[in-house]
Design goal:
By secondary structure, the protein is mainly α. The chain has two domains: about 1-140, Orthogonal Bundle (Arc Repressor Mutant, subunit A), CATH 1.10.10.10; about 155-220. It contains nine helices and five strands, in the order αααβααββααβααβ. Strands 1-3-2 form a three-stranded antiparallel β-sheet, sandwiched between helices. The chain is globular.
Length: about 220
Amino acid sequence: MSNTVALDRARSANKKRLVRRTGVSELNFAKYIDIFRKLLLLNEKNDLSTTLKNIQELMSFSEKIFSSKAVSETFLYFCLHGASTAWVLQCELNMPEATVYRALKRLRAMGVVVPALKVSKVKRSKGGPRPTVWAIDSASPNEVGTALKHHYRMLSPKFRVAEEIAQTILDEFQEKEAPLEIKYTEIMFHVKELKIPFKGPDIADLAAQYLHERGIKVWR
C-alpha cells in the first residue's frame, strides 16, 4: 500500500515537473520567435542579396534548433509573415503536402503556432475539411488577414504562374547582383518564353505586382 502511494506521488511530481518544463519551453520559444522576427524584419531596409544572406544564416541556426530543414523553413516563414495556411506553405516553400503537415504538427506541439481561423470554402471546391490559417501567438490581425488573402491568391493558377516568373527574375537578380529594377517589357519577355495558355499582360501585371511588393522597381 505504501509503495502504491509513493508511486502515485512520484507520478504526480513527474506530471508537475512536466507541466513546468512545458511552460518554460513555450516561454523560451516565444522569446526565440520574438528575436527571430526582429532579426528578419531588420532586413526590410537591406538590399536583396544582404537579406538573402542573413536569412540563410538564420535558417542554418534554426536547423540546429529543430534538427529538421522543413520545420526550420516553416518556422522562419511564420517568423517573417506571422501567419499562413498549409497550402501557402506548400507553394511558397516548395514542400510536399505531407511534409508541411508534419512541420505544422510539430510546431503546434511545441506551442509555436496555433489555429487562428478557418478559411471559407471557395465556389466549385472539392469536399473535405476547411483549411486553417495558422499563426504565431504574436501575429497581428493584419498578418492573419494578409495570410487569408494570400491563400486565396495562391489558389489562382494565373497568380501561381506569375509568382514562378517573378521568382525566376528574383533569382537572376541574386546571381548577377544587378540593380533592383526591371522594365515591364522584360517581364513580358519572360511570360512569352513560357508559352502559357493565359493572356500575357494579365500574368505580367501580376508578376510586376509581386516584384514591387518585394522591393523591385518596375519601369513601364
